[in-house]
Amino acid sequence: MNLRQLAKEYPACDYCGLENPNGDLLCLCHSNALEDGRGAYHKSKDLFGAMGCHRCHDRVDGRSGGLSKADKRGMHMVANARMLRWLILNDRLEVK
Question: What pLDDT sits at residue 96?
Answer without folding.
Answer: 83
